[in-house]
Specification:
A hairpin with a 2-residue loop joins β1 and β2. The protein contains seven helices and five strands. A three-stranded antiparallel β-sheet has the order 3-4-5. A two-stranded antiparallel sheet has the order 1-2. By secondary structure, it is α+β, with helices and mostly antiparallel strands.
């Protein structure tokens, strides 16, 4: 069914570019008028097979960026495959800044990662050493960075620095008696460890370092 849809759209709407992943499709149009027309054509095609467009996902989005006029009240973002596409500032090759329509890790994806991190209960894993915790979580975190870090990586790195490092501080406070109820002291200790072993955790290697660390990403 999916490949039949691809073939049908390609043959009946020549010149219209689109991407599809399973049941999610993005269609690129030159105008709002064309977008509404394509939406109606696809809806009619699906109706023939007893299907319909998703009432919440289906939307027309204006890809705002420098060089294009602003349209008041227009939708200017959408989420696809864990990325939210919307206007974002980006540095050009010559060092200037401009606004482009760019993807970055979505809020929903961040919530899912945060839920996974909480589920690890790192603060209670005092049976593990620092190195063992790194071995445990690095494989998963590396997967997140490889996928969600392909575009606008700084947003992901900031998220991981906030989420992961605070759980490591909680672990240190429970693990070592001299750090009990001394989170500030534990944060300083974590920063010193990052300075000495910046490659221990994969998120440290990509710049998600603890506050106060002087280490640099490798």
């Amino acid at each position: 069914m999916h490949y039949a849809f691809d073939r049908w759209l390609h043959e009946t709407q020549q010149g219209v570019r689109f991407e599809r992943y399973c049941d999610d499709v993005i269609v690129h149009c030159h105008s709002e008028k064309q977008a509404k027309y394509i939406r109606n054509v696809i809806a009619a095609r699906l109706w023939r097979f007893g299907l319909r467009l998703h009432p919440e996902k289906t939307r027309i989005v204006y890809c705002t960026q420098d060089g294009r006029p602003r349209i008041p009240d227009a939708r200017v973002e959408f989420t696809f495959l864990g990325y939210t596409f919307r206007p974002r500032h980006a540095r050009t090759k010559d060092g200037d800044w401009k606004t482009g329509f760019l993807p970055a890790v979505s809020k929903h994806a961040c919530k899912a990662m945060a839920s996974t991190i909480r589920g690890w209960r790192l603060g209670r894993r005092t049976d593990l050493s620092f190195a063992q915790i790194a071995t445990w979580i690095n494989r998963i975190v590396a997967g997140w960075i490889n996928y969600y870090g392909r575009f606008y990586k700084s947003l992901l790195i900031g998220f991981l620095a906030k989420q992961l490092n605070r759980h490591l501080v909680s672990w240190a406070c429970r693990k070592y008696k001299h750090l009990h109820r001394h989170k500030a002291k534990a944060r300083r200790q974590l920063a010193r460890i990052a300075d000495a072993y910046p490659g221990m955790f994969v998120h440290w290697r990509h710049g998600a370092l603890p506050s106060g660390s002087a280490a640099r990403a490798v």
